[in-house]
Design brief:
Rossmann fold, 2 domains, alpha/beta, 262 residues, 6-stranded mixed β-sheet
């Protein structure tokens, strides 16, 4: 089985790596060898496989088109692709959960921070952020996109939020695209003299089990369930079963970056 990991800012996200590790265990348990797909400097796929799994691999990625050209079963993890087997978390519900949590904590000026606002997953989370605010009678803001300067999501998030704070935005809270982005946002707030969560609250996304992110309030995706469902879909795909998708729920994991305002 060949696995292709999607890129954000030219780097592989910790969340994608966690899913890959769990999926590898599940597939090897069923007797399959799992390997990362290799590409030539010119972008040609060099790894032949019985099936390919893209984890966070977006349709505009040239590697996705290389996988399609093989006419081999393809399973999408993280993106809903109707023409393929897919497994994805309920990103629309996740964006709503994060925003609703902040509203219930007393926040009113809530911003949404993402890598690319036109990316399908970002768009779903942003639209549910807007819905949660509208339902509570508050005004949503345009999504804050991170500038692609260094290719390091935490650093670029830090720089972007510092820039906006200097320009005068006065946030109550941020809903962020990932735990890495949330970390950069939290550091920017701290360096601008704002206390998290007393002055500004922050919600991440992914729920990475890592000491660097355990302090975050975040929307947790169930990595184990994603891996189990993806492995099941791989088996169905290579047996030429009808194409189907699988949506998984998410939940909010409270941490140290949000609190009820007094």
């Amino acid at each position: 089985m060949g696995v292709i990991l999607g890129l954000e800012f030219g780097t592989i996200s910790p969340f994608a790596l966690k899913v890959y590790e769990a999926l590898k265990i599940e597939l090897e348990r069923q007797g399959y060898r799992v390997t990362r797909v290799k590409f030539s400097p010119e972008g040609e796929m060099l790894t032949a496989a019985k099936a390919y799994v893209g984890i966070g691999l977006h349709p505009d990625d040239p590697r996705y088109h290389q996988a399609q050209a093989r006419q081999t079963p393809y399973i999408s993890v993280g993106d809903v692709l109707e023409d393929h087997f897919w497994v994805a978390s309920n990103d629309e519900h996740g964006g709503y959960l994060a925003t609703d949590h902040l509203i219930k904590n007393g926040c009113r000026l809530i911003y949404f921070v993402c890598l690319h606002s036109n990316h399908a997953v970002s768009h779903m989370r942003y639209q549910s952020y807007r819905r949660a605010l509208y339902e509570s009678g508050f005004i949503p803001y345009e999504a804050i996109e991170i500038n692609l300067d260094t290719g390091l999501p935490a650093l670029d998030s830090y720089r972007r939020i510092r820039e906006l704070l200097v320009l005068g935005i006065k946030p109550d809270a941020f809903v962020t695209f990932s735990d890495i982005v949330a970390t950069g946002v939290s550091m920017a707030l701290a360096d601008n003299g704002m206390r998290v969560p007393d002055d500004v609250q922050v919600v991440g996304y992914d729920g990475i089990d890592d000491d660097r992110y355990q302090y975050l309030t975040t929307i947790r995706q169930n990595i184990y369930s994603i891996a189990v469902q993806a492995a099941e879909l791989v088996m169905e795909a290579i047996k030429s079963f009808p194409v189907r998708g699988c949506g998984l729920d998410v939940f909010l994991r409270p941490g140290q970056t949000t609190c009820v305002k007094r």
